[in-house]
Amino acid sequence: MSVFKQIQIQKTLPFCVMLVLFIVFSCQELNLEEPKPEDLSKLDQSMSNVVPGRYIVTLHSDEINFRKSDKYEDVQLEMRKISHDILIKYSIDSDKIKAVYGNAFEGFSVQLEPFEFQLIKQDPVVEFVIPDQYVVGHSILKKGGNSGKGGGGNPEPEPDPEPELGIQPQWYLDRLDQRLLPLDGKFSTPTTGNGVTAYMIGAPILENLNEFNGRAINIDLTGDVPNEPLLLDWGVLNAAALGGENYGVAKGVKIVSLDVWDGESTVSSYLRAMDWILANGQKPGLVFLPLMGQTDIELVEFTINQLFHEGFPIFTHTFFGGNTCNQVPTKFDNVFSVGSTNFVDGLAWDSYGSCINLFAPGVSVLRGGFPEYQTNELFDLSYENAACLAAGVAALYLETNPTASAQQVYDFLFETSTKNVVRFSKSINNHLLYSGLTPLGAGEIDPNRPNYAFDLEAKSQRRNGNNYTIFFEWSQIESETNRLNVFEDGEGIGSVVADQGLWISDVTGRNLPPRTYKFCVPRTNLCSNEVTVTF
């Protein structure tokens, strides 16, 4: 959890009160009426993220003859019968049912014509009828499907330069097990994740790859829809980063891939996977949940919270820019959100916000695949792989702490992360994932960081004699005038162009004392951290 999230949780409710509330809440039927949500069935079907004619139907649990069983197949069979009986009352073909849910909540997803929608939503058994929505990646996946291995569709822009000569393909692992740069060319972990299961929602994987060493299985929730090569790339690379024998963090973890992408990526399909985990998930275990975008379906958070309280930590990633606190599931308190860094511990992909819990390497991670499974080099999942690396470290921890709660896993990863090393993070949590499973050498959190509007770095370099050049670099900050005021030792000395991000200043003198610098947005109280430059 982020610092803000931790403070909020700790100061609002004692643990015993939270436990009582959870027990009471979990015994009640799904209730989205407090606070009362907008009836999403009224949502305009022309919205770009709405799946035309597809709905998620939730049912009043006290209005149906349903007894939850411990066996997933029995629950599915009973819920399908209940759903069939509802549709048949209105002469709607039950083949239109896409999925049924009985563990996260009682309901089903279905394809309906407008007049059928009007009939269903008035049934007394029905609680809500919610338009299904596409999630992030849907358009990319629809464009995929080249004839061989490798990513199809449009390549994403590369935000960072290629690594310098000498950096190995496993640079991201090398970075995880040491506190500071430069890389030492080594990677080792105290444990392997043995006995832990990682549930990866989304794309399928190839079970028989040597990289997985017999530890990976597929669960097909699509109804045997043929897999596009791009989907295999997606699943294999994420799984390899999390738990591959040679290229992953947790080399002993069991990987269960929940294949839900049946030609399109939707909220209802992700809910199907989470419903499966709630019924079949083994602990110690964890969940990798891809970013879903700006969906506003409250069932998503409701179901995620159930996973969290059942003891499954949930890991997700950031995307290409934007405030992570506006995205699902990164904005949820009970999800661990991982940002991306580049080769010099700088922010990659430009996502920002206090909802980022920490950062991990997220560029050129398995780009192009690995010798046993090669992909198109333009296909880059590094931003997702960052979250997979964090999930891998969580598996290492869970091997020796199998009864740890999801919150304890989050707290441990945050506690052991290397503090204040992510450059220009645009997040209060500028900390880097660490795989050593110890807080030794982690450093201290800067107590003043919440007061900084943006990050400033500065260093001096002697040109010759008593002549020096100071190099200033700062993170992006909005300014109406596109200027930033420069303060030296507390006194204003001029201004610089805000969106330039770089400024060079020459100074001359003998035995120059250290100087402090701070940049501020004009006519505001938005300022950077203060840096000290020595000569």
Could you characterize what this model shows?
By secondary structure, the chain is α/β, with parallel strands linked by helices. The protein folds into three domains: 94 residues, Alpha-Beta Plaits (2-Layer Sandwich); 250 residues, Rossmann fold; 82 residues, Immunoglobulin-like. 24% of the residues lie in helices and 22% in strands. It contains eleven helices and 23 strands. The strands form six sheets. Strands 5, 6, 7, 8, 9, 11, 12 and 14 form an eight-stranded mixed beta sheet that branches. The protein is elongated. The N terminus is likely disordered.
Which properties best describe this structure?
535 residues, alpha/beta, Alpha-Beta Plaits, Immunoglobulin-like, 3 domains, four-stranded antiparallel sheet, 11 helices, 22% strand
- State the helicity in percent bands: 10-25%
Biggest beta sheet attributes = 8 strands, mixed
Radius of gyration: 25 Å
If you average the pLDDT, what whole number results? 87
Assign the CATH topology of the largest domain. Answer: Rossmann fold
At the fourth CATH level, what is the homologous superfamily of the largest domain? Peptidase S8/S53 domain
Beta-strand proportion: 15-25%
Low confidence ranges? 1-29, 33-46, 138-167
CATH class of the largest domain: Alpha Beta
Q: Termini separation (Å)?
A: 40 Å
List the helices and strands and how they pair.
Elements: H1 3-12, H2 15-26, E1 50-59, H3 72-88, E2 97-101, E3 107-111, H4 114-121, E4 126-133, H5 138-143, H6 171-176, E5 197-202, E6 216-220, H7 229-243, E7 254-259, H8 267-280, E8 285-288, H9 298-309, E9 314-317, E10 322-323, E11 336-341, E12 347-348, E13 351-352, E14 358-361, E15 369-370, E16 373-374, H10 382-400, H11 406-416, E17 456-464, E18 467-474, E19 483-488, E20 491-497, E21 502-508, E22 515-520, E23 531-533
Parallel strand pairs: 5-7, 5-8, 6-7, 8-9, 9-11, 10-13, 11-14
Antiparallel strand pairs: 1-3, 1-4, 2-3, 11-12, 15-16, 17-18, 18-21, 19-20, 19-22, 22-23
Helix pairs in contact: 7-10, 8-9, 10-11
